[in-house]
Amino acid sequence: MSSSFLTSPFGVDLRPGAPPMLRAEAAGGALSWAAEHRERLRAVVAEHGSVLVRGLGLRDAAEAGAVFQRLANGLMAEKEAFASRRTYADGVYSSSKWPPNQPMCMHHELSYTLEFPGLMLFACLSAPTEGGATGVADSATVLDALPPALVDRFEREGWLLTRSYNDEIGASFAEAFGTEDRGAVESYCRANAIGFEWQPDGGLRTRQHRSAVVRHPVTGRRCWFNQIAFLNEWTMAPEVREYLVDVYGADGLPFNTRFGGGDPIGEDIVQLLNAVYDANTGREPWQAGDLMLVDNVRTAHSREAYAGQREVLVAMADAVRLADCSPTVEVSAR
């Protein structure tokens, strides 16, 4: 056996306030190790929702991408991105371009799409000098910790995502949809239950209605699965929100979320959601060479503010259809 975790009587290192961790001894190289222990790793993710592998010594994008390919059941191309990324190879991306001093709060990747990743893979090539951890939180635990009345409302109504694409803030519509062809964008929106409206300045506004609570496609467990807090105006830093409202107007924010019936989500609710996430977050500072796997339905993830150079590569894999997760509301383009 070439990996210490397989021979350790303790197996996965489970520490309060930290993600599950495995320590690998990959003398034969990261790709060989990944091939040998693929099923064991995936079993750990199925059991715990995520795992941080330390000791692989991932060195560059090519090696990280090869490991991603080996561990996944198929990498996905990102669609409907909320922020731009650098593409290293098919299905291998940089982290979303987001100001280092602004945290990215807990969310489930592409939870507003009709087909989203079941598995997220992360590889740290360069660790920041301070902060920058990718936190994780169990979505079923978060759901149980939320006020029942609030959960009931979101189960009945779902949530509404509104987006205003422009060339200045966040991803442009060309980056999000992979084309500048308006006809192709419109066809995609119609096929994916997204309402759309072209603006006089050439921008695009969209609306989509989705479930806030789903059932895990394998276990059937109810999960709080959405980006209600992350993409809400009240999660933004106050000065950023004030600037964007001043420039684009309250209805022209790059993204915002509402209750599924259209009512605004108040600052108090967003603070509550983020507080529950924070109380249930596991975090571990990145080290160069680390690998992390996250079950995207069972486990939310975040990115903390940081200082220094941080290079974390991302892959989205193992596509899951919303229709296979027992959505509580019918998707629509409200």
From TrEMBL:
Originating organism: Pseudonocardia aurantiaca
Cofactor(s) of this protein: Fe(2+)
Domain of life: Bacteria
GO terms of molecular function: dioxygenase activity
Pfam families cross-referenced by the UniProt entry: TauD
Domain named TauD/TfdA-like: residues: 32-315
Keywords from the named record: Antibiotic biosynthesis, Dioxygenase, Iron, Oxidoreductase
Classification via InterPro entries: AlphaKG_dependent_hydroxylases (IPR050411), TauD-like_sf (IPR042098), TauD/TfdA-like (IPR003819)
Name listed for the protein in its UniProt record: TauD/TfdA family dioxygenase
Its EC number(s): 1.14.11.-
Region forming the signal peptide: none
